[in-house]
Amino acid sequence: MIRTIMMPVRGDGKAPNVLCFAAALARTHGAHIAAVHCRPRPEDLLPYGVPISKKLQEQILKNSAQVAEHEDMAVRKELISLAAELSLPVVDGPNGVGASVSFSDATGRQVDVIKRKGRLVDVIAVAKPDRDRNIGINTMQVALFNSGRPVLMCPPNAEAPEKLGTHVALAWNGSAESARALSQSLPVIHEAQNVSILTNGTDAGPGTTVDEVLHYLAAHDTKAQVVNFKATRNIGAALLAETSSIGADMLIMGAYGDSHERETLLGGNTQTVVDQSDIPILFSH
């Protein structure tokens, strides 16, 4: 079951959209959203390799601390207001009585905060990376590669449903990544009203066929339907099209079977989904 959803935030304007999708998932599972504002350390904002006077250094540290405090207050105010609109109770922590949200702050780079606080939650919710503006790329990469947790990537400019995960699609090719995605997403799959397994007919041989996935899910008291699609090239785009075609509200898939750097430079199924998706994606690596 999903009980805690971590939502790392900072003053980049992405937080409200992520909270809407995190709230939709929280409603489905009666989960708690732990929104953590990541405040940079003032000393991290000092110019690197540039000699400056002690007085100027002290002034920069003071101003940086004031800016961080102002940003924290602004983000917290914005999210508390949105939580009220979403009918999300603001509490101190998980209380087990339904969807709720808490707000805290942590000092340090966002990637470091995720490493520290992201390993003992059930899902980490992040914004879809904006490669054009170079925003959110490291956040998602660290959440995937350094937390060991599934990562919900929330699309921008999309309206979140009241509940998320009512019809989920699982991308299956028999790989270790897709097996991990299946295992880590069982709480989501178990609560879904409809489960579809997307396959283009490829697997890793005996023990990894789509029929065996059906048997595995049946052992977990879950029924699923198989959806076959034809694609030999640009499988990522085909997965997104098929997910939309069947009306699923979330795609579950393994992430970066090849290295992140290789897929980013040369293209790959995961990177295609990251770049082109307009629906929530639950990634596992």
UniProtKB/TrEMBL annotation:
<protein>
    <submittedName>
        <fullName>Universal stress protein</fullName>
    </submittedName>
</protein>
<dbReference type="InterPro" id="IPR006016">
    <property type="entry name" value="UspA"/>
</dbReference>
<dbReference type="Pfam" id="PF00582">
    <property type="entry name" value="Usp"/>
</dbReference>
<comment type="similarity">
    <text>Belongs to the universal stress protein A family.</text>
</comment>
<feature type="domain" description="UspA">
    <location>
        <begin position="218"/>
        <end position="282"/>
    </location>
</feature>
